[in-house]
Amino acid sequence: MGNHPSALQRCIGAVGGSRVGFAGFPTDPGYLAAWVQPYNLNIQITPAAVVRPRTTEDVSAIVRCAVANNVKVQAKSGGHSYGNHGLGGEDGAVAIDMTNMQQFSMDNNTWQATIGAGTFLGKVSERLHIAGGRAIAHGVCPNIGIGGHATIVRAHRTPPLQPPSTRLLPQGGLGPMSRMWGSCLDHVVEVEVVTADGKIQRASNEENADLFWALRGAASGFGVVTEFVVRTHPEPDSVVQYEYTLAGGSHADMAPLFSAWLDLMRDPKLDRRFGSLFLMVPTGALIAGTFYGTKDEFEATDIPDRFPGDARRHLVLTDWRGSVAHEVEKLALFAASLPAPFYSKSLALRREDVPSPSNVRDLFGWVDTQEKGTPLWFIIFDSSGGAVGDVPSNATSFAHRDKILYYQSYFVALPLTTTSRDFVNNFHTRLMAANPGAFGTYPGYVDPDLPDAPRQYWGANLPRLQEIKRMWDPADVFHNPQSVRPMPERSGGQG
User: Fold this and answer.
1) Roughly how many angstroms between the first and final C-alpha of the chain, as a whole number?
2) Which keywords does this Swiss-Prot/TrEMBL entry list (predicted)?
3) Closest by CA position to 216, among listed 232, 200, 204, 202
4) Are the beta carbons of 223 and 472 closer than 8 angstroms?
5) What pTM does this model have?
6) Structural domains present in the chain
7) pLDDT in tens, 40-72
8) How far is the C-alpha of 407 from the C-alpha of 388, rounded, in Å?
């Protein structure tokens, strides 16, 4: 801890006692590599401390140390924030790394599971299966932490570093089964959380209901969740995984297929057992989908008939666990979770925001004419809607219940170039110009350059979030550059 430890270091050191690996500080050799480990290497951050608690009592004491020393706090679960928000998003915060919070239990009467906030989704899936063949809605990347994923604040799609055949499915609190079961946060029925006063609280619809409302969609500004209680489902018996690839040729040639996919995704009668994405990369494009049912049930829908039925179509028949294992193996998602320098833009689209065929044709033609500055660029459209939209937009702080698609464009490069950044930004600008009513984005797809970010993340729910923030965290202890701020005290009619 150096020759002259600060008051913060002394306080955290007293909490950890003689425990090895409890906390790291900037004065420690190898601090950035061993403790900080940023995900987006384009954003360099040095926290005041990184702490790895083992108990909720540890978390409580760490928060009290930070408050006593006027230092901000952020929790880090999987650490996949595009803005490195789990490390504070800017220098000088205490990052509470939840990696040791791995508790798990299953109530076989209610089939509700208790899951530690540091658990990765791969382990969540495995433990739910062992505990009775149960499942919840979540993304497929095994290294995403449930702490951010179940609160839709920092768990995101992993930037794909592989070619189209190793594509990704939706990440964040959404996943391929979300149209059928809702988002991951819709499964949360209770949490244990440490609040800004250092107290250990329970929050649910019956206890601390306002805090519970805020945590389900904006937890980074309200506390450190240490465990979740979630409702679960029986695992589906059969799963069909669909894939349609296009390689070579111009992107303009792919526009009709993308428009056909858009027509399917905005169909209000689309079978909720089906989730899908469209991925555009330098060498082509891919449509991937997952249907939770049998092959006969899948083919009884009109989904297979909406696309060409040639050799470019591929079906994989499996069960729930097999589908998870298939994605992990095929998509090489462990490798894709490696830190990299990248830049991204995103947008949430309602049914009425879906671009027309003429707009798609113009946009894809424009892509063909542009210098990209890197071979690692990706444009992705993920499906949503279905059960996610059954929940009122004000039932939780997550506001984007009316969205049926989420788009992202990004590039990975070392170094990041103006050419690549301009390509991503200009694609985003053109997409928005074609859909002038579109506004807002999924709060899991953090964009450090997003203007008016809190309103774009939380929409009409932002004022209530600011009021709850003022009640639970008036000093803004739980803070990153885009988290919810307390509502200012009213004066002169201003709120």
Assistant:
1) 44
2) FAD, Flavoprotein, Oxidoreductase
3) 204
4) yes
5) 0.92
6) 7-97 (3.30.43.10), 104-235+455-469 (3.30.465.10), 239-437 (3.40.462.20)
7) 999 999 999 999 999 999 999 999 999 999 999
8) 17
